[in-house]
Specification:
The complex is a heterodimer of chains A (312) and B (300). Chain A folds into two domains: 4-169, 3-Layer(aba) Sandwich (Rossmann fold); 184-310, Rossmann fold. Helices cover 39% and strands 19% of the residues of chain A. Chain A has helices at residues 7-21, 33-36, 39-44, 56-68, 87-95, 124-129, 142-154, 200-212, 231-241, 256-267, 287-293, 298-310, and strands at 4-5, 25-29, 49-51, 72-76, 102-105, 135-137, 159-162, 168-169, 184-187, 192-196, 218-222, 225-227, 244-251, 272-277. Chain B is α/β, with parallel strands linked by helices and 300 residues long. Chain B has a single domain (6-298), classed as Rossmann fold (3-Layer(aba) Sandwich), CATH 3.40.50. In chain B, helix 1 (34-55) crosses helix 4 and helix 3 runs parallel beside helix 4 (101-111). The chains are: A alpha/beta (312), B alpha/beta (300). At the A-B interface, helix 4 and helix 5 of A face helix 5 and helix 6 of B. The structure holds thiamine diphosphate (TPP). Thiamine diphosphate (TPP) binds next to helix 2 of chain B.
Chain lengths: 312, 300
């Protein structure tokens, strides 16, 4: 397996680079800069960094005001606190007026681990994804993170970028170019397609490798832009492989699986399976124990592929 | 029950002296007399009654209570250009209590941001005058509001941007007293003092009422001025219907350095219409045709 790199650290370093290039970039955090890694930016640009204290609603409002006045704010905290703790502020102060605020959250999903239920962000994609005009990105590794952050800075409008706590193996090489709104075919195959985001991309690739030994030939898509979704890639995969399995570190309702199912229901219905957290909350544990307990491993994806293919 | 024809409306620009300096020729900094301002305040009240009456819904009570505050701001305090709402150096007025949209619209129309006749489209399909403020459609509206509690944070962001950009605009934000039940207001209060923004002035329309009744019965805010003081603000209290006091207080706020200022304006909800004054029924209910007639008579 390739080298493991922190998405958060990459985010923090990318912010510093962007800060050097663009004096309008400002960064806001809510007393978590040591964890979200906005601390790098704070150190280099203290005058353009605002620690808002443990007050996420106010932080989002300040960011909206800065954006309305021509600044380019990046706002960071844990995914569980934004959108969770300030949904209406994001809705009314950012989404409705379509302001140029970049929300980059870390510690998403259950791979946060031991902090437990209150800190597991498994609803954030449903919440943010419900807001008209938001672009939603879930990078699969550090290389994609750096590029997605740069693209967010370059494009006008509200963005949500969801990062995880653990370091992740690289799935891309340095020459990768993130293409907003486009799915990436990570592996070709004809029997079924696994569509994955975030930490589930690496699990999807592992599952495809294992299934090959059973003679099942899986395509793998990384659909890191969750919104706007790449409908064409989904429809093409369904038409060519006849079965779709989604994989995400999020509740089954309202995230990737729901979005893909809606596209397929309208354009290209095929058997589907959903690898996601069922209608429940997870507990404390280490990340790999939790991913196993709540059905987010390569094995779970393999099972999903078999059952979707059986219904072809 | 309609607004006077536009042609018959004495527009504010008649009572305004603009600077002779060509750069500032369009800058709206008025030296309207208090008598003229009083006449304008009365006209704004008539617009509020007429437009909410026509719309059949809306919030007259909390619009009427802040008429003198907005009259003072738009006629004597703000540097703004109705012909160029996006002018970079304009002073910003942010309406946090977005339900007072009828008052803001009336004031903006009076200043010439859009035709006074457009006020009659309030709350209608495809109107630029939405039920609560929407910065994406209405010229002169700085913030989309409606969910209470968010304006102070937004205003703080605008104030910080001004400081970062070395721009000299000032930021004014109007809150309701009931709105101050919201925790976010106090997050914003703490942060504004922490960041030492002295280009930010909050005004509280302290009419003592919210929807379910008097503040002290619904959720007691006392001791209100001391709360702001404890959060690190410079506090001023005024009679919010007294133009001379308001003018003086806004002038003095410009001299405060190193901390934000809050002006607690003591007002009467529904001010100017006898049956609306201190009557929570008219918080979010428009006057019917008969009530419009009586109210306009009182406001002659
Ligand atoms: C977050 C939120 N909760 C509830 C409401 C419904 N609401 C609209 S106006 C209002 C009362 C506001 O009272 P106050 O701020 O004192 O305004 P005023 O009396 O000056 O109109 C309420 C509860 C709202 N708009 N936003």
């Amino acid at each position: 397996m390739s080298q493991e790199v922190s998405l958060r650290e990459t985010y923090g370093q990318t912010l510093v680079e962007l800060g050097r290039e663009n004096p309008d970039i400002v960064v806001l955090d809510a007393d978590l800069s040591r964890s979200t890694m906005t601390k790098f930016f704070a150190r280099e640009f203290p005058g353009r960094f605002f620690d808002c204290g443990i007050a996420e609603q106010n932080m989002v409002g300040i960011a909206a005001g800065l954006a309305a006045s021509g600044k380019l704010p990046f706002v960071s905290t844990f995914a569980v606190f934004a959108p969770g703790h300030c949904f209406d502020q994001i809705r009314m102060s950012i989404a409705q007026p379509k302001l140029n605020v970049k929300l980059v959250t870390t510690h998403s999903g259950i791979s946060v681990g031991e902090d437990g239920t209150s800190h597991h962000s498994i609803e954030d994609l449903a919440l943010i994804g419900s807001l008209p005009g938001f672009t939603v990105i879930v990078p699969a590794d550090a290389i994609e993170t750096a590029q997605a952050v740069r693209v967010a800075a370059a494009c006008y409008g509200p963005f949500y970028i969801r990062l995880c706590r653990p370091k992740l193996p690289l799935v891309y090489t340095e020459d990768y170019r993130f293409n907003l709104g486009k799915a990436v075919t990570m592996r070709q195959g004809n029997d079924a397609t696994i569509i994955a985001i975030g930490i589930m991309v690496i699990a999807a690739l592992e599952a495809a490798e294992n299934l090959k030994r059973e003679g099942i030939d899986c395509r793998v898509l990384n659909i890191s832009t969750l919104k706007p979704i790449d409908e064409a890639a989904i429809i093409e995969a369904a038409a060519e492989t006849g079965a779709i399995i989604t994989a995400e570190e999020h509740l089954e309702h309202g995230g990737l699986g729901s979005i893909v199912a809606q596209v397929l229901a309208r354009h290209q219905p095929v058997p589907m399976e959903f690898v996601a957290i069922k209608d429940t909350y997870a507990k404390s544990g280490n990340a790999s124990e939790l991913l196993e307990r709540y059905g987010l491993t390569a094995k779970d994806i393999e099972q999903g592929v078999r059952s979707a293919i059986a219904r072809k | 029950m309609s607004l006077p024809e536009e042609g018959n409306l004495p527009s504010i620009s008649d009572s305004v002296t603009t600077s002779a300096n060509s750069v500032d020729a369009e800058v709206f900094s008025s030296s309207a007399s208090e008598a003229e301002m009083e006449a304008i305040a009365k006209r704004l009240r008539r617009y509020i009654i007429t437009m909410t009456g026509k719309a059949g819904s809306g919030h007259p009570g909390g619009s009427l209570s802040a008429v003198e505050i907005l009259t003072t701001l738009y006629l004597r305090v703000l540097r703004h250009k109705p012909s160029d709402p996006q002018w970079a150096d304009r002073d910003r007025f942010i309406l946090s209590k977005g339900h007072a949209a009828p008052l803001l619209y009336a004031t903006l129309a009076e200043c010439g941001y859009f035709p006074v006749g457009e006020l009659l489209t309030l709350r209608q399909m495809d109107s630029r005058l939405q039920g609560h403020t929407d910065r994406t459609v209405t010229p002169g509206v700085e913030m989309s509001a409606g969910a209470l509690g968010q304006g102070l944070s937004f205003a703080l962001g605008v104030a910080l941007a001004g400081r970062l950009n070395s721009q000299h605009y000032r930021v004014y934000v109007l809150l309701g007293d009931g709105e101050c039940d919201e925790g976010q207001v106090w997050e914003g209060a703490m942060a504004a003092a922490h960041f030492k923004v002295d280009n930010l002035v909050a005004i509280v329309d302290n009419n003592g009422q919210q929807i379910d009744g008097w503040n002290r019965d619904v959720m007691n805010l006392d001791p209100f001025p001391m709360k702001w003081q404890a959060f690190g603000w410079h506090v001023a209290e005024v009679d919010g219907h007294d133009l001379a006091q308001l003018i003086q207080t806004f002038d003095q706020a410009k001299l405060v350095k190193g901390q934000p200022t809050v002006i607690i304006a003591h007002t009467i909800k529904g001010k100017g219409v006898s049956f609306m004054e201190n009557n929570p029924d008219f918080h979010g209910k428009a006057p019917n045709a008969e009530e419009v007639k009586i109210a306009l008579k009182e406001l002659e």
